[in-house]
Each structure stands twice: as structure tokens, then as C-alpha cells.
């Protein structure tokens, strides 16, 4: 099966609105609306790119436009990334938390607050699953939420969900250490606060789609998170896609796309 890497540069329709959750060009949220009347089920998209500055939200345009065509209100968050003055630790996590906290008020009555799914690809999978885990952080942590977020679930697409394992495997040429400022032996408090595998159980349903031919985020990473989540009692399901690489899960023209739509429908049901 051909990899869908060309989706990274494929043109897509512009978003309907660009909302701001803070100052600067990177604290924004692209919004695409379906044709039907609202309130709409919401998909919050968190893009990947190993948390690095050279990868922004624009490469998710084809996927987000396709999801809006399916009847979803699609909100795609941007955030500061490694290589930018406010990116990395803790700025990247600060931004994602701030965006999600602000989003309900920004979307208003167009969104159905009882039908919200977080979708994250690659490094965005870590950020999405972490966002659903913030109530598991200690009360003194600045990202702590006092209660479990109101979500139908999280859809991880080739997500970097076990940061310790990803660091051991040197995924993205040391991308995890770049995000967290170092390795677990010297920065364990960062890993403990950011690694979804260390924050289970969340009580939030998760579906993990993982290509078995993925050269960037190998299946072992999703398998490790799924095993930990299920053992902790979370309603987590790993769906492996034989022959699929890293980008098909964000490509609406790929053979994997029907599986993405099925997983979203299952979470929204």
C-alpha cells in the first residue's frame, strides 16, 4: 500500500474561521463548519510533526475539510513547537491546555458540548491523550483539571503515546527529549506529567488506529499504551491496520480513511 506522505503538501480549502485563544500567530484555532444546521458534533484536531516548529496545522487541511463534509464541526488547534521561543517544555503543553480550555466559549452554540472527540495524529496523539488525562495530574500541577473532561473519547492516529518508550527508541531523532528537555533519568518529573502511559486510568474511551507498516511511530508504541490503559481499567481499543504507514490515517483518499470514519462514529455513538 502506498504511503500518503503527499498529503502533507496537498492543497485544501481554507478554514471558515480562525479563532484566537491567546496572543501571537500560533495561538489560533482553525474552524470548519458542516453544511447542516447545528449544534454540531465536534472533532478537535491536534496535529503532529514530532512537536517541531517546521510542522504546523496546515498539513491537516485535507483531513479537516473531509471531516467537515462528513457533518462534523472541526476545530484544529495550533500551538508553539520545539524550535520556537515559546515551544517545548512547558510552552507546548501550556498552549494545548489553554486552547482546549478556551474552545467551548469560542465555539458557543454552534457546538454540541456533549459530542466532542479529540483526534491527534503522531505527536498530536500524545497531546490529545494527555489533554484527556489532565484530571489525573496532581492538584498543584498548573495543568490539573478538577474533574474528568466531558468527552466522548480520544482517537489516536499513530500516536506517540508512550514517551518513555519513544525516547528509548529515539523516535524522530530524539524528538521526545527535545520536547521534554532531556531524558527520563534527569527529567522524570516532565515525563510523569506529560506521558499518557503514566497517567492511566483516565476513564475516557480511547480508540488507537495504528498502521503496521509505520516507519515513524512503530506499532509497539501504541501497543504499550493500550496494554497499560486496559490493565488500568480504561475502555481502550487498539485497531491495527495491516500494510498501512504513517500518513494514510490523515489522508481522506487512502484505504485507511474508512477506518478513521468508523472509529469516529463509534466514539460519537
From TrEMBL:
Residues 34-224 form the BD-FAE-like domain. GO terms for molecular function: hydrolase activity. Pfam families: BD-FAE (PF20434). Keywords: Hydrolase. The keyword Hydrolase applies. PANTHER family: AB HYDROLASE SUPERFAMILY PROTEIN C4A8.06C (PTHR48081). This is Acetyl esterase/lipase. It comes from Crossiella cryophila.
Amino acid at each position: 500500500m502506498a504511503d500518503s506522505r503527499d498529503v502533507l503538501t496537498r492543497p485544501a480549502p481554507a478554514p471558515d474561521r480562525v479563532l484566537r485563544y491567546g496572543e501571537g500567530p500560533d495561538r489560533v484555532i482553525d474552524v470548519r463548519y458542516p453544511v447542516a444546521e447545528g449544534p454540531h458534533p465536534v472533532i478537535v484536531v491536534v496535529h503532529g510533526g514530532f512537536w517541531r516548529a517546521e510542522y504546523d496545522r496546515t498539513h491537516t487541511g485535507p483531513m479537516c475539510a473531509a471531516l467537515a463534509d462528513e457533518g462534523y464541526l472541526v476545530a484544529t488547534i495550533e500551538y508553539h513547537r520545539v524550535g520556537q521561543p515559546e515551544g517545548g517544555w512547558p510552552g507546548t503543553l501550556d498552549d494545548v491546555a489553554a486552547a482546549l480550555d478556551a474552545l467551548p466559549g469560542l465555539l458557543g452554540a454552534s457546538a454540541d458540548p456533549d459530542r466532542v472527540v479529540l483526534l491527534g495524529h503522531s505527536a498530536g496523539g500524545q497531546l490529545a491523550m494527555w489533554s484527556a488525562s489532565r484530571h489525573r495530574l496532581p492538584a498543584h500541577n498548573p495543568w490539573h483539571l478538577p474533574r474528568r473532561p466531558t468527552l466522548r473519547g480520544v482517537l489516536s492516529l499513530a500516536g506517540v503515546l508512550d514517551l518513555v518508550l519513544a525516547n528509548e527508541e529515539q523516535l524522530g531523532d530524539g524528538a521526545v527529549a527535545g520536547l521534554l528537555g532531556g531524558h527520563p533519568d534527569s527529567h522524570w518529573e516532565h515525563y510523569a506529567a506529560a506521558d499518557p502511559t503514566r497517567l492511566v486510568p483516565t476513564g475516557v474511551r480511547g480508540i488507537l488506529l495504528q498502521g503496521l507498516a509505520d516507519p515513524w511511530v512503530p506499532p509497539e508504541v501504541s501497543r504499550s499504551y493500550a496494554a497499560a490503559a486496559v490493565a488500568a481499567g480504561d475502555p481502550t481499543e487498539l485497531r491495527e491496520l495491516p500494510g498501512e504507514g504513517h500518513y494514510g490515517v490523515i489522508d481522506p483518499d487512502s484505504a485507511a480513511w474508512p477506518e478513521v470514519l468508523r472509529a469516529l462514529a463509534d466514539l460519537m455513538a
